[in-house]
From TrEMBL:
Membrane topology label: Multi-pass membrane protein
Record's subcellular location: Endomembrane system
Keywords recorded for this protein, A-Z: Ion transport, Magnesium, Membrane, Translocase, Transmembrane, Transmembrane helix, Transport
The protein's name in its UniProt record: H(+)-exporting diphosphatase
Organism: Arabidopsis suecica
Amino acid sequence: MMMDEDVEQATLVSYSDKPRTFPDMRSKTYSPLIIRILRNLNVRALSVLLLLSFGGIFYMGARTSPIIVFVFVVCIISFMLSVYLTKWVLAKDEGPPEMVQISDAIRDGAEGFLRTQYGTISKMAFLLAFVILCIYLFRNLTPQQEASGLGRTMSAYITVAAFLLGALCSGIAGYVGMWVSVRANVRVSSAARRSAREALQIAVRAGGFSALVVVGMAVIGIAILYSTFYVWLDVDSPGSMKVTDLPLLLVGYGFGASFVALFAQLGGGIYTKGADVGADLVGKVEHGIPEDDPRNPAVIADLVGDNVGDCAARGADLFESIAAEIISAMILGGTMAQKCKIEDPSGFILFPLVVHSFDLVISSIGILSIKGTRNASVKSPVEDPMVVLQKGYSLTIILAVLTFGASTRWLLYTEQAPSAWLNFFMCGLVGIITAYVFVWISRYYTDYKYEPVRTLALASSTGHGTNIIAGVSLGLESTALPVLVISVAIISAFWLGNTSGLIDEKGNPTGGLFGTAVATMGMLSTAAYVLTMDMFGPIADNAGGIVEMSQQPESVREITDVLDAVGNTTKATTKGFAIGSAALASFLLFSAYMDEVSAFANVSFKEVDIAIPEVFIGGLLGAMLIFLFSAWACAAVGRTAQEVVNEVRRQFIERPGIMDYKEKPDYGRCVAIVASSALREMIKPGALAIISPIAVGFVFRILGYYTGQPLLGAKVVAAMLMFATVCGILMAVFLNTAGGAWDNAKKYIETGALGGKGSDSHKAAVTGDTVGDPFKDTAGPSIHVLIKMLATITLVMAPIFL
C-alpha cells in the first residue's frame, strides 16, 4: 500500500533509498499430491508404511541376488545423505525481506510451470502407453519368451508398467532438481554477503542433494523393477525365463525416462531462453539497463527459466542417460554371458547397478570435500570456484578408478577367462579418461581463461557480424576433438573387450560390445558429481539475479558474478560430458536393438548395408530429423522471445515510470506469456521425434513385405538411428559449445576487458549471447536426449518393424 500511494503521488525515489519490495506472485502454497498425502499421514502410520516398503524391497532383493541387496543398501544410505544435505541447506538464512520476496516469486513461477508442464506430459505418456499396449498385444514373441510361457498379454502389461514407472521416476528426478534450486538460490545470495566460499558450498551441496536423488532413483528404480520381475516370473526355474533374457523386459523403463526427459528439456529450454532473449533484447540492447535489473518486466520469467530449464530438465536428462546406459549394458551383458555359457551370469548383468552404486558413494565424498572457511569475508580475495570444484572432481575420479577396479574383480571374474576382469577394468579406465578429457575440452572452448573465448571476445570489438562469424567458426571447430576422443574410446574399449578371452561355442571372441558398455559405465561412474557441478550453475545464476534485483552492494554482486561465470563453464562442460556419454550409450542401444531384432526374427542381424537404396534413404531421413528438430526448437525460442519483447516494450511505453522506479513492472504477465508459449511450442518437435522412427519403420516394413525383403523395416530404422546419432552428436557439440562460448565472451567483456559494460564490444557480445541462447540451452541439450530416445523407442517398437 505504501508503494501504491507513492506511485499515485509521483514521489517514489530510487530503490536504493527506500525499502525494496516486490509483487508477491504467490496465490497459495502448492505441494504435489504425494507430498500432501504424506503430510496428512500420522507419523506412526508413515513409519510403518516405510518399514513395510523397505521390508518388501529387501525381501525381493534377497530372493533375487545379494548384489541387489547391496545396491538397495547403498541407494537408501545415499537418500539419507541427501536428506542431511537438504536440512543443512535449508538451515541457512534467506537474507533480508526483499531477497525472500524475489525468491518466492521465482519459486511460484517455477512450480506453477512445472505443474502444468508435467500435467501435459502425463496425458501424452498415458496416450503413448495405450499405443504401446495395443502394439504389444498383437506383436510376435521371441522364441525365448515363448519357451518361458510369457504370453503376449503379460509381455504387454510388463512393458507398459515399465514405461510408466520410467516416466514417473524421470518426472520426479526433474521436480527434485527444481525443488532444491528454488530454495537454495536465495540462501546462496544471502551467504554471498558474508563469504564467497560459503556461497559456493551452499550451491554445491544443494546441487549435490539433487544429484544423489536423481542417480539413486535411476539405480534403485531399475533394481526394484529387475527384482520384481525376477521374483514374479520365477526366473531361472525349470520351464521359466532365463535371467539372461530378463533385461529385455526393462526397455520400457528407459523409453519412459527418455520420453519425459525430451519434453522436459524442450519445454524448459524454450521457457528459459524465450524469457532470457526477450529480456536481453529490450532491457540490455534497447534500454541499456543491467542484466537482472528489477525494472525489466521479464526478469522474473528469466530467473524462473533457469530453474525449469537448467535444473528440472537436466535432472530428467541425466536420469534418462543413466537409465538407458544401465539397461543397454544389462542386455549386452546378458547376451554375452549366454553366448559364452557363463555358469553364473548375474555378475555381468548387474554390474552396471553396482558401478552406479559406487558412483553415489564417491560423489558424496567429492561433494562433502568442498567446505566453507571460517574467517572468510566479502572483502577478502575471492578464491577461484572452478579450482575448488576441480579439486572435488579430481578426488572423485581417483576414487572412481579404485571402486571400478574392485567392482570388475568382484563381478566380472570368471574361470573361463581369469584375466577378463582386468581387460574390462581397462575398458572402464578408457571411459573415465574419456569423461575427464571431454570435461577439459568443453572447458577449453567455453572458459574465458583460454584463448578461444578471448579470441571470440576480441572479434566483438569490430562489430556484431564478426562476433557471430567467430562464434559459429568456434562451434564448428569444437566438434573435431570430441569426435576423435569418442572414436579412440570406442575402438580401444571394443579391442580390450574382444581380447578379454571370452569366446562363444565357435571360438569367436564375444566381449567387444560389452567392453564398450563397460567404457560407458566408466564415463558415467562420476555422474552424480558432474550433475552437482551442473546444478551449481543455475543456482549461482539465480543468486546473482536476486542480488541484482534486491540492490545489494557491488561487492556482493562481484562474488555472485564470479560464481555465475564459473556456473556457465560448469554447465557447458556438463553438456559436453552428457554428449560424450550419449554417444557411447547410443552405440550400446544400437547394438542392443540389433540383438533384439535377431531375437524376434530368429535370424542373424549384425550388419546394415547402406548400399541398399531404401536403407540409404533411412540414413538420410535420420540426418534430416536432427536438422529439422533443431530448426523447430530454435524457432520455438524465437517466437516465444518475440512475444516477450512485445510485452516488455508495451509495459515500458504504457508505464514510463518504470525506468525511474516510479511504477512497478507486471512480472506476472511475462511469466504467464512464456509459460503458455513454452507448453504450446514443445509439442511439435517432441511429436516429430516420437512419430518419425515409428512411421519410417512401419512404412518400410510394408514395402519390404511386398518386395520380398522381410527385415527391410528393421534395417531402414537401424540406418536412420545410425545417421541420426552421428549427426546429432556433431550438431549438439556445435550448438552447446558455440552458445557457451558466446555467453562467456560476454562475461569476459563485463569483467572490464575491451571497454567493459556498455561499450560497443559489449553490445556486440550481447548479440552473440542472444543468438547462442537457444543453441546451448534448448536445441543442443534436446538433441542428445533425442538421439537416446530414438534408440530406446526403436528397442520398444522393434516388433512392428518386422
